[in-house]
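Open question from group meeting: does this chain pack into something compact, or does most of it stay loose? Before anyone orders reagents, we agreed to write out a predicted structure and look at it together. Recording both the input and the output here so the notebook holds the full record.
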Amino acid sequence: MAKKQSGKRRRRVRKTVLRLPDLDQAKSAVLNSPSSADAQRGYRHAIDEFLDWYCSEPRLWFSKSAVLRYRIHPESRRPAPGTINLRLGAVRPLAYEASDAAC
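Structure tokens returned:
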């Protein structure tokens, strides 16, 4: 006997707040992308610094606006513009991976 399908479909509920296990999974995916050990070390440093900042902010959702707010943090210490771009270059793929994990 075949089961009768109901008219209601299950909707996928999107996560609005990503927890650290979700971010750790996204972090490992981003760290596996560069083939150079030096690039992986630089990405790891930038992502760890971002996660420390992200965890210190009260109730901040991980989204594009969080990455834009993070940009202010390294700029306050006045490093070279290339350093800021390198750090944001590591954080952006983390945001893309985390948004894929949130679906």
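Observations to bring back to the group:
The chain has a mean pLDDT of 77.
The helical segments are 20-31, 37-56, 64-75, 81-101.
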